[in-house]
Amino acid sequence: xxxxxxxxxxxxxxxxxxxxxxxxxxxxxxxxxGLGVLWCLDQPLWAALLFAAVIVGGQYLFAPCLIDRLFRxxxxxxxxxxxxxxxxxxxxxxxxxxxxxxxxxxPDGHPNAFTYGRIKRDARVVVTTGLxxxxxxxxxxxxVAHELEHVAHNDFIVMTVAQGVPLVLYILYTWTRNRSRDxxxxxxxxxxxxxxxxxxxxxxxxLSRVREFFADEGAGQVTRDPxxxxxxxxxxxxxxxxxxxxxxxxxxxxxxxxxxxxxxxAPRDLSSIATLGICNLExxxxxxxxxxxxxxxxxxxxxxxxxxxxxxxxxAKWYELNSTHPLTxxxxxxxxxxxxxxxxxxxxxVLPDERxxxxxxxxxxxxxxxxxxxxxxxxxxxxxxxxxxxxxxxSPALGAYGLGLLIKTIMVYPHGESRERKVADLVGDxxxxxxxxxxxxxxxxxxxxRGVPGLFWSKDLVLRDDSGFIRLQYSQPFWIAEFLFAAxxxxxxxxxxxxxxGWYRRAPQPYIEIDHLLWQENGLAHxxxxxxxxxxxxxxxxxxxxxxxxxxxxxxxxxxxxxxxxFLWHLYSHH
Length: 575
Hints:
The protein has 575 residues and is α+β, with helices and mostly antiparallel strands. The protein has helices spanning 2-8, 10-40, 46-70, 83-96, 129-134, 137-152, 155-177, 184-223, 226-240, 243-254, 258-262, 281-290, 300-312, 314-320, 328-341, 361-387, 394-412, 423-429, 479-489, 532-554, 557-574; strands spanning 74-76, 102-106, 113-116, 124-128, 419-420, 439-450, 461-464, 469-473, 497-506, 510-521, 524-529.
């Protein structure tokens, strides 16, 4: 048994190698930037580095105590979760060569689980009561096994050390930023420190996602049942989705019984432990809403359709770069493959179909960054030809930014003919949809809640038709208009049947950006309009005209041409 266990865990041995490589890359960035900083500064950095060490060390030492105090955790014995679980836990811990951790419960209906601590001997595994109520005994063991894998891999230490690197890099950047005026080399070091700081943040997130994948794989091996964790992830995602609480809360508010209305409680928010949990809160809710049928239940057929976007659209990987957890669909695909490799049939099947992504990802990336790219180019032109960093050099930057924003707005808001669609068809068929590529559409259905249930300033709405659910995004040029709508008008739409016209997008949660909202009330037709598009067009033209006018006022044609000649001669002579 021991030999087979070691053999089956051989893929996990690469976790240590990959983690070591990632940490080496992080410290390589830190070391290289530190050398440049020490070279250009005439004072030691020991104070700043000591401060960073204190911050990271303090987080590592005191974070468990803070979590103990922030959450109402009831520490329980393993028998509390069943005799079968109590018999399994010591065996699993012995197999992983870790002490049996402390077990805790949080009285909350949202299903979630997380682990924390400093070392293996003081690890805590905490679950919500909603998780215990939602999962079967086999699924509960699979989730706990996932958390035990985090303990076995020393994720407390690895992630704390990794997260300290961006902090130190930012300190190095702030120390060199004030010295950038000392010369071009100091400026290069400062910019390099900031670039390394940005890169290190993405590397840390990548490390977190890698460790989640390996914890999933390890849990499938400890329990010998990857399907249990796959079905648990589906249930957890559904528990995180707004629908269950949303429907109950909405029905209570609509009740004619005053006592029932007074007892209605808004759903609680667990976003504070979203990064700790087994499943990302936003990603889980997006997955559940997308893979549901009209009754709100999980639909394997709908999952197979909506999963194609996550598997094929490059934007899915782009959005995943900013997440601590992999996309739920990717985790399910990995667990399905593991189940097949272990000689089992996959209970939650996620397979690519024959469809091919035919979008233009790199063009959409270019369009998305166009205002900033043109603005930077305009500033460089103004710096070189007008005022060398003075106020006048910002004039071309404003005009170029306005031009880029105008082009982006025209591309992001296509005005093709829209046609009536079903939610399931939009979510399942539009593989090319993204935050940049919008699909003109019209959908009719019932508003069943807010985007964030129970939050009175949540401006977005959730629509249900006879095929599924989707979020309606309400956007106006000014934030105050959105807040007033959420606080004063959104409630009137609950239970209202509406006809929405707008643009279907995905980023990564599917949503429709509202252009028009039409409904009937008391026999009268009403309409609601969003003017975000018009506001963006106004600001783009404003910056374009202002920047162009300011540039024409500032420019001296002869002087600008002479500066350009001198600049080109300078480049040629140095070459």
